[in-house]
Request: fold
Amino acid sequence: MAIDGNVYSSKQFELYIADQSAMGTANDTDAEFVKLDVVSVSDIDFGGGLVQERNLRSGQQIKKLTDHYVSQKGASASLSFEWVVSHKEGLKQLMKMISEDTGSAYEMAGSFAPATYKHGATTGEMATVIISNPMSTDDRVLHSAVLTELTLSMDSGSEGGRLVASGTFYSGYKPVVGASTVAPSGTETAYVETIYDCSTKQLGGQDLVAKSFSCTWSYPAVRLGFQGGSAEAEQYGRSGEITCSGSALVKYDGASAGQLAGFLGGSSRAVTFGDGASFQVSAPTVVYTGFNVDLGDSEEGAFVEIPFEGTATGSNNLYSVIVA
Reply:
């Protein structure tokens, strides 16, 4: 058999995303897809939810081929990404999926109840995600994907301080591997936010000198039931704990030292990072979960990492994120 002479660069692979209106039906409208211009594309994790059984059966001491069972029926798939945010539409899609809010400011209240994620339903926030393969017959289409985790971070020591989005898509539907006809042509409005654009850097209402900031939202999902010839998901259950957590690395001085009392006392504090207009992350009622002073020998001086976890009751917001 002849050897294939093609050598594909990892830079030739691309990641596309589009809103999806109905669960179970992939979006294939070019004008609704945008590219997430990631540094590198991760392949779909097929094995994470693959149904496998590999038990030695009777008859001999060495496994037979029939002792191996593999099936995509009842399986799930996931896809992780990291994207230095370059356009507004992609970030808005991600925020809409993690919050189930329709527009900026993206908010979630303590009384939040998940939408219905049922095969054929149009109520949830889902996306069709495509890995475009230079070998065009080997594209990957992950449809009816929900966002189970999203992190927004800024660090003055990496990516020029630019906003970075990372997270994980999850689907209870069988990924389609083959030729995709999608050619993204959706609007991509330039959107470059950096830590240096954040005029507000507050913990507990105190202005601080910041080196980095990150916030992570977790909104779990698991497939339930099965339908169709491929036994794909009948529903998604989204009944796990929804969390908002993060961390700020700030200069250790008289202003930041005062935050230690909040950690030791378990009292509530507010966290706000952004410019108040085009980008801002706010968590109005957080509890500090640590206070870690770095006393290493650094020319920058001493810094303290303050991790936090958001809380909310009733109509009060767990978080609020402006993307404008």
